[in-house]
Amino acid sequence: MDQGGLRSKFILWSLTAWVLVKWHNILVDNNYERMKRLPAACKILVAVLQPRSWDLPLSKLGPYTTPPVPAANPFLRKHAGSQALGGRAWLKAQPTAVPARRLILHLLDARREAISALAVYRHWGKEEKMLIDLGATFPAV
């Protein structure tokens, strides 16, 4: 085979590889965020459609409303008042796993309350007027 034929095949394969890489990156970048939202939307839909009696009772919601105490670092000295647990003790201290569909409505209620509480402090002036002109809506106080 002559050098011209090899060179043209090399250029053709290089160009094809470059086009495929660009095409793949465009597809991944455009669809990745949407694909991440799909399972979340399904969980919210299932939670909204299920009977309210299937939700986690408010009396059992306590352990899920506060972040867990971080695990103890085995490479640091323990302080006298330290509450951090390490290893299996830390794992046993965690609340049991609950399906997301049982917690989502509580989360949405908490978000609604937080938005209402923050709406009291909404005094932005020019920025707020600009957002309203662009079509933004704000919750009623």
UniProtKB/TrEMBL annotation:
Domain of life: Eukaryota
Protein name, UniProt field: Uncharacterized protein
